[in-house]
Amino acid sequence: MNYLSHYYADLSSNEPAYTLGKILPDLSRMVNPSVRLRSGVLSNHPKTALQWLNKGVDTHHKMDAIFHNSDFFFEHTRFIRKLMNEQNFGRPHKYFNFFAHLLLEMILDRVLIRHYPEIAHNFYRDLKSIPAGLLSNYEEQHHYGIDLPALNHALQRFIAVRYLFTYICNEHLVFAFNRIVLRTGISGFDELDQKLLAGLIDDIEQELWLNFSTIFKTIRIKLANEL
């Protein structure tokens, strides 16, 4: 899942460190692609910001496992692949599974932003309240070798720009999508393919909006059963 979906899938706490933890595995890969954050040292009853951060990272991984093994994921990536196959993309079809996966996650965030903008506002509000030095404390505990200045810069820019709100524009969403593709080492979409992809965004969003709430209900139920 993408950033806002990780936040929305568990609203049981508005602790800023917990909010950060739920997106930190993805955010850290923007800076250190080879670093994979693990669940860490957990507390059943977190009290400190560092304990909440570790719990958020753990919740992130649990959410991803549920999401990527759900009927919702398989059905909607298949739908997106079908739409892409119907277009004359100048791209190898072997990448379409990955593209569909990525588009599903990004457009699911867009559905939330468009229909529940207060969720996105609350998300950024929480991130603005992260205690100073928290990421340094996290790195000291785990020794991942994270580039802390770069990660702090990426986080502060992510908050200041309110990047997810740009997803409302089809072209901006495709631009963000293309940047992620390039970071994986796959060649980016050219101008023609970007236009073709932008033309599919509304149809994908409409399909997700029909039953988007089912996946979040599934995640919340399964998370609750693990407690």
Description:
With 227 residues, the protein is an all-alpha fold. The protein contains twelve helices and no strands. It has helices at 3-8, 16-31, 49-68, 71-85, 96-115, 117-128, 134-142, 148-161, 170-183, 191-198, 201-211, 213-226.
Indicate the mean pLDDT: 93
**Quaternary organisation:** single chain
* Biggest β-sheet description: none
The first-to-last residue Cα distance is 21 Å
Task: Provide the gyration radius in Å.
Answer: 18 Å
Let me know the number of strands.
Answer: 0
Strand content: under 5%
Outline type? globular
Number of domains: 1
Pattern of helices and strands = HHHHHHHHHHHH
Structural class category: mainly alpha
Helix count? 12
From the structure above, extract its key features:
single chain, 227 residues
Ordered list of secondary-structure elements with their pairings:
Layout: H1 3-8, H2 16-31, H3 49-68, H4 71-85, H5 96-115, H6 117-128, H7 134-142, H8 148-161, H9 170-183, H10 191-198, H11 201-211, H12 213-226
Helix pairs in contact: 2-3, 2-6, 2-8, 3-12, 4-5, 5-6, 5-11, 9-10
Nutshell version of this structure?
By secondary structure, the chain is mostly helical. It has 12 helices and no strands. It starts with a helix and ends with a helix.
